[in-house]
Amino acid sequence: MDNNRKLSRRSLLGRATLLAGAGLAASLMPTKHAFAQQKATKETVKYQDTPKGDQRCSNCSQFDPPASCKVVDGAINPNGYCIVWVKKA
What we know:
Helices cover 27% and strands 4% of the residues. The chain is mainly α and 89 residues long. The chain has a two-stranded antiparallel ribbon with strand order 1-2.
């Protein structure tokens, strides 16, 4: 019998582990579909049409003039507010 073609149980398990790891890594790789994310609903982010002190959509880094948001779905009032407000730099 040729010893070069004989596989030990250890080498077989090692190769199986390597293949399983490669399969897992390939499934975790980002695809074009992973970049398309849904926006949050107004209810989820507790959106309101009035500001909270000096925190308002118009001075939030997520605000996209004239009336939309990068994070929240639907029309946005520039004087509105939600919990994902982030001060514009």
